[in-house]
Amino acid sequence: MIVLIPAINMKRFLLLLFLSLHTLVFSQNDDKVTIDVQDKTIEEVFEIIESNTNYRFYFIKDWIPEKRLSGNFENAKIETILNAVLDETVLNYFLLDEKVIITENSIIYNDFSNGFFENKSLPNEIALEQDETEEKAPIFYESTNEKIETVKIGRETGTLSKRKFVIKGRITEKETNAPLSNVAIILGDGQTGTVSDIDGYYSLELPQGIHMLTTRSMGNTSVTKRVIIYNNGELNFNLGQNLEMLNEVVIESESDKNVRQAFAGVSQIKAQEIKTIPLVLGERDLLKVAATLPGISKAGEGSSGYNVRGGRADQNLILLDDAVIYNPNHFFGIFSALNPFTTGVVDIYKGTIPAKYGGRLSSVIDIKTKNGNSREFSGEGSIGPVTGNLSLEVPVVKEKSSLVLGARATYSDWILNSLDEESLKNSEASFYDVIAKYNHQIDAKNELNFTAYLSSDRFSITSDSLFAYKNRMFSVSYEKEFNRDLTGSLILSNSNYEFNIDYDSDFNNNFKSGFSINDFQLQAILDHRISSDHTLNYGISSKFYSLIPGIIDPLGDDSLIESRELAKEKGLESAIFISDDFEISPDFTINGGLRFSVFNALGPDEVNIYDPGQPRTEASVISTENYANNEVVKTYSGLEYRLTGRYSILDDLSIKGGYSTTYQYIHTLSNNTTVSPTDIYKLSDFNVEPQKATQYSLGVFKNFNENMYELSLEGYFKQTEGIIDFKTGATLFLNENIETEILDGEGQSYGIEVLLRKNLGDLNGWLGYTYSRSLIKLDSPFESEVINNGEYFPSNFDKPHDFSAVLNYKFTKRFSISSNLIYQTGRPVTVPIGKYDYNDSEFVVYSERNQYRIPDYYRLDLSLNIEGNHKIEKLAHSFWNISIYNVLGRNNPYSVFFVTEDGSVQAYQSSIFAVPIPTITYNFKF
């Protein structure tokens, strides 16, 4: 007899037919079998038959259903037993001598009866005159190159018992496993089909044969399956979201955002877009990338502050998930303390700041941690020369909640201890940061988020002092959609920053000292869509500050230092705000806002009252006033105006203008040129007034070549009042009467910013140029408090010319090169201009403050980026970054200073990186 397997493609059939003619001969076996089956699986029944007879079974294990059987067979034919065992399954069998071949769905035929080859592929309808018990021809289908899944439904029988068969099933969404209603299931002819009900179920009656079924649904992928129907059966569909279509919509809506949005002076950085930019020691750094944009700069390498449009570093509000980060840097600003693998986007407002933000004059840097993957476990990390970084995304409740965990640490201590240099061996330089975010989608209208963050630094490089500082924060936000036009957020946050210094010398003056600031803030914010033309954003906020301005304690039993702690400072900053995004016409949109802020300096406090006709010194104190705990010492308040607008001249050309006023009630006390980890924060109080700024801006924004290129030109002018500066030689730390060292100044800054960005193509990146001036005036009725004759002079961070070029070129999908070129005018310094001799020593006469400049700064960085292969099924996707920081080996001066040695004045220059720094970093994602 000839054996062949139907329901396969024709090539396989012909090959099997050829082999059958040469090797297979069928013979019927009439042996009887006696077995007893009690609560056994089908596979266990096969094993019983094999142990009691010479029959051997051949099958694929995955085909066998989990079905349990019971029965007693005495002197029964093997066919009788198999028919009973395989009843109500889709399995068939074929006997070849004492071999039992199990097949799924289809039958193995052993002869060619009449009409065997007549219906090579049966039509979708069977002739009505066909007898119900007529033998059926096997089903064949042609092999094609289409990647279409073939599914067999039901169990084939040798005769036609019905004209049509019913297939049933359920349609669900792949990501959520939720039922999908109103999904159309269409036959290949497009004329017939059915639709799923509200619970995702469907039923379809079809004739025996081959059918092409296709699903159609808005928002879900379309699936086509080749279905071979032998009998009644079940077919389920699991459809994914149509993410490709959604992504295209998002990209299109964002591509002209720079032209269409009302706010000017806004930049956005996405963490995934900066991975190829070469930075020092291969570290991805969101804030350093921000400093390559026009209007944002750093005082120099190794400085932890950022200057925005001529503002001081303490005038920037840096938020991580709505909580303040007071020092977002590790190791004097060389490394960022923000994990790029857990960060989603960074929004930077340097022009008109939205009314919901307050408390700083220059900018808001709003950093958002991304939500985790709620469907499957995933992660990302990097291994660099001095740091390791890892982030994990863990589903907690599938499709509802997730946890993002990020950690980064340095192994620089291990490197230092491995060096031969004895002084460096005893050094310490370590840091780490950890972050965790929990996101819970309660339902479609309610969402809960919780973020916690900690960073820590310790360093002592060939010195007798150990410096340590920490950031700690947490925030909880509850977001609710009341209806389609009204949504709200309730946010509670806490931030803490502290530093400590342990001084250990060979004398009996060892000590430990420190400072800390802590704040709690509660915000309630509503977004209300009044109409298609008006969208309101309004709310209230209140923040409570608590500062320990300074503390010192002896270190060791032999220390002669006495314990001392300055009185705690407390303050309450509250605000109410409202803004309206008003579309006057499709071409003209304005955003107007008001923010009324109030600051209360709180007791306990002892306040010095100074003679208004004299400079503030200890000698000019005329009285003191005492305030009880939480008693209001002084109240400051102000109405802040926020107005910005956009007028579209063309679809891809617009003009934007802005006007804003801002108040700042907290100050940084530092007589360093740049921000340092040991800077002290000071609240406004009876003798220290808040800072205030007014800014005007105007810009032109143009896109080219279907938004491939962006060009912007912005100008600004800003005036500032209440700027704190200090007298020469001022003592700031542990000073109970700090107001006696303060100079009250005013500032003026202006500039033009140009940005050309290419978003698409093998070559992409941006060119940025800023011409800006930052000036300060320190004038007073008292001659001892006048600097530079009371005229405007350059601030410490005034750098008129600032150019940057960040470019990336893709050779292939795996290989690319990146470059980072920076040029800046040298920063202002005060230098000796004369000298005189006194008591056989040489002393110097200094110029007016900030009259000269250090040499200009420029640097070129290059990197080669190598992506791993793009196979989908792999353990992890890798990315190599081979970079050289400061390719030209430029010895850029960080500062210059002068000292008297052996009776003569010597000039010195300090630099951070004076040679090229090569780095290899391995990144992976799984």
Automatic annotation (TrEMBL):
GO terms for molecular function: siderophore uptake transmembrane transporter activity. Keywords: Cell outer membrane, Membrane, Receptor, Signal, Transmembrane, Transmembrane beta strand, Transport. GO terms for cellular component: cell outer membrane. Residues 1-27 form the signal peptide. Residues 262-360 form the TonB-dependent receptor plug domain. GO terms for biological process: siderophore transmembrane transport. It is a multi-pass membrane protein. PROSITE patterns: TONB_DEPENDENT_REC_3. InterPro entries: Beta-barrel_TonB_sf, CarboxyPept-like_regulatory, Oar-like_b-barrel, Plug_dom, Plug_dom_sf, TonB-dep_rcpt-like. It is found in: Cell outer membrane. Residues 542-695 form the TonB-dependent transporter Oar-like beta-barrel domain. Pfam families: CarbopepD_reg_2, OMP_b-brl_4, Plug. Coiled coil: none annotated. SUPFAM superfamilies: Carboxypeptidase regulatory domain-like, Porins. It comes from the Bacteria. PANTHER family: HEMOGLOBIN AND HEMOGLOBIN-HAPTOGLOBIN-BINDING PROTEIN 1-RELATED (PTHR30069:SF29), TONB-DEPENDENT OUTER MEMBRANE RECEPTOR (PTHR30069). Belongs to the TonB-dependent receptor family. This is Outer membrane receptor for ferrienterochelin and colicin.
